[in-house]
Design a protein that fits this description.
By secondary structure, the chain is α+β, with helices and mostly antiparallel strands. Helices cover 39% and strands 25% of the residues. A hairpin with a 4-residue loop joins strand 12 and strand 13. Helix 13 packs antiparallel against helix 14. The longest helix is centred in the middle third of the chain and has 27 residues. The two termini are 34 Å apart.
Length: 634
């Protein structure tokens, strides 16, 4: 019920504040409307153009300026005086809303008009202006993928309202297009992106609080969303659940993390052990699609996470979506678990055995051997050659696979040579100093110094035999000599060799080696999350916000991998960062022009896609022109 009105009136449009009493709880609040006066017969009536809401931020003295500027934009008139930036932005936003609304009304009225019929006008070319450019290409591809994955249906099923679904789409697509914080995503949605036009939502009216709140809500529904996504991806691409890849990574925080229970100091994979860390554990299938994720503290012991993560994969699906139910056609055998040496402890391998899992892991054994006579070639690419041979171990009923890589040998040898050269240089410097004034000579001190050098160059020092000669009379060191010793039972004696262990005893070397190399796909996922999708660094200082930020990034990866998987099927093997560059450049913009008879015409549409964009659109099967054509004349 309306109980009061306050207006700032001028000719044409004006802003009116109305006092409203809520029917629900009787609370009184203000709402603001942009109104115009229209003549109906002999009477003048007020007609609401758009509702400006109860949180309209401008003081009354600025209302006439806003109303006047909105009317000027719609009529194609430039402002005589420079207005404050916030007023100009608000006027542009309200004018765009009015044009969109009235265009839709006109389209509904003119149902008999052919969409393809020519619309010829006499236009003053000098009056042409292009305003409000907004990017739509990345948004278009991302939103079509969002619908393909049926995330809109799962969100609706979980009880999300329209505002929450729009915030979810904006957060995910924003992380794909311009990776960054929630604050930067909010700015992008309001000022640079045309995503709102594609989904019919006004992001310029969305508060920053909604972006933060949706990440909290999505993380609460994490299990249901992950389960739905994986089932949907399996249904779309028809891959079977054969291989499970498991690994962890961590990322660092900016700030003290005083209120974040996950932020702990540990060993950083990015050489940022000076910062608090958080750990992301990820389970993928052999096609690179995430099955499950979990966030641990930064100092978690990696091997301790395996049982929890793998056991959770056997939980029955509770999804009600039809596509998810159809996944029962797939074989429910336990998949092969593939892990690197960091997680493949003896305890974890024994747990896999006790729970009847098949596995292929990187062995932790220090002793490495290689028999070139027994080895078979499993890969050859120009100078890159990989050979492997199997060895059955009766005591453990496992098969060990010894692999030799020519590229890895070069790398190992280069590292070993570099440390050996540094170690010998320091030994030589210490030896030369024995005959120089003011340098270290006392035998015990020299022995201590050599010990420190061995500690510093551990990898190189174990391959040397060092002798320190002592003068019995002066008790000083007289000479330091060293020679290389060969350790046949060390990893350095066989550069380029690594060992795998498995209970898949019937498979040959080639299949086992190719299965192991799938771990590189998991490493590529972590690289994509960090470098292409803004996983690092994390600026949040509250635990729930950290979890929400990381999960939004993971949802963005689901979309990215779905897009790239479909493109690969069509022969396009481009990284996501390069795909963004190729898609960039298609915008929606409004052309404003004046006709000969004095009408101001507004036409808003997307620019024509270029060949590089058309190639991607055709491969994904999406329309070439995102959004509708909007026409409005005054």
């Amino acid at each position: 019920m309306t109980i009061g009105v306050f207006s700032v009136i001028q000719d044409g449009m004006y802003i009116r504040r109305t006092t409203i009493k809520s029917k629900k709880d009787g609370e009184t609040y203000f709402t603001h409307r942009l109104v115009e006066s229209v003549r109906v017969g002999n009477k003048v009536k007020q007609r609401t153009i758009i509702n400006l809401g109860k949180n309209f931020p401008f003081p009354r003295e600025q209302w006439p300026d806003i109303a006047c500027r909105v009317e000027g934009i719609i009529n194609g008139q430039s402002s005589l005086f420079k207005l404050p930036e916030k007023i100009e932005q608000a006027a542009q936003h309200y004018a765009a809303q009015i044009i969109q609304t009235r265009s839709s009304q006109n389209n509904n009225t003119d149902k008999n008009d052919s969409i393809d019929a020519p619309d010829y006008r006499l236009i003053d070319i000098d009056s042409l202006e292009l305003i409000r450019p907004r990017s739509v290409s990345i948004e278009h591809v991302s939103h079509e993928t969002f619908l393909k994955l049926q995330l809109d249906k799962i969100f609706e099923g979980l009880g999300y309202n329209n505002h929450q679904i729009a915030a979810a789409i904006g957060s995910i697509v924003g992380r794909m297009a311009v990776p960054g914080s929630e604050l930067s995503t909010h700015y992008w949605l309001q000022n640079r992106s045309g995503l709102g036009e594609l989904i019919g939502y006004d992001y310029e009216s969305m508060s920053l609080k909604r972006i933060y709140e949706i990440s909290d809500r999505i993380y609460k529904d994490k299990e249901a969303i992950e389960r739905h996504l994986y089932n949907r991806e399996r249904f779309l691409f028809g891959f079977e659940e054969i291989i499970t890849l498991y690994d962890l990574t961590n990322t660092f925080f900016e700030g003290s993390c005083k209120y974040n229970e996950l932020g702990k100091h540990g060993k950083s994979k990015e050489k940022r052990s000076d910062c608090p860390l958080v750990t992301l554990a990820l389970v993928l299938d052999s096609s690179g699609f995430p099955r499950r994720s979990k966030i641990f503290s930064g100092n978690v012991s990696e091997p301790s996470t395996l049982e929890e993560m793998i056991s959770s994969l056997n939980k029955p699906s509770e999804s009600s979506l039809e596509d998810d139910k159809q996944m029962s056609v797939f074989d429910k055998k336990k998949p092969v678990v593939v892990m690197d040496a960091g997680i493949a402890t003896n305890d974890n391998v024994q747990w896999l055995q006790a729970n009847h899992y098949r596995y292929l892991v990187v062995s932790r054994k220090r002793y490495r051997e290689f028999d070139h006579d027994k080895a078979v070639e499993v890969k050859r690419d120009k100078d890159y050659i990989v050979k492997a041979y199997k060895k059955y171990v009766k005591e453990t009923e496992e098969t060990e696979i010894y692999c030799h890589s020519s590229e890895r040998e070069k790398k190992d040898q280069s590292i070993q040579n570099r440390f050996s050269e540094r170690f010998e240089a320091d030994l030589k410097s210490l030896n030369d100093g024995l005959n120089q004034k003011g340098r270290l000579k006392i035998y015990e001190k020299v022995v201590e110094k050599v010990g420190r050098l061995k500690q510093k160059y551990t990898k190189a020092a174990k391959n040397y035999e060092i002798t320190i000669h002592k003068d019995k009379g002066s008790k000083k060191a007289t000479k330091i000599t060293w020679k290389i010793k060969k350790n046949s039972d060390s990893s350095d004696s066989n550069p380029g060799v690594y060992c795998l262990r498995t209970n898949l005893n019937d498979l040959d070397e080639t299949i086992l080696w190719r299965t192991y190399t799938m771990l590189t796909d998991l490493e590529a996922v972590f690289r994509s999350l960090k470098s292409e999708l803004g996983l690092r660094p994390v600026f949040h200082q509250i635990t729930r916000r950290v979890k929400g930020h990381l999960f939004i990034t993971l949802l963005a990866y689901h979309h990215v991998h779905t897009i790239r998987f479909r493109l690969k099927e069509n022969g396009i093997h481009t990284s996501w960062s390069d795909l963004r560059k190729e898609l960039d450049g298609q915008n929606r913009t409004t052309a404003v022009m004046r006709s000969k008879n004095g009408e101001t015409i507004h036409v808003r549409k997307s620019t024509k896609a270029e060949s590089r964009q058309l190639k991607i659109y055709d491969a994904l099967g999406v329309p070439h022109s995102p959004g509708k054509v909007v026409k409005y004349e005054v």
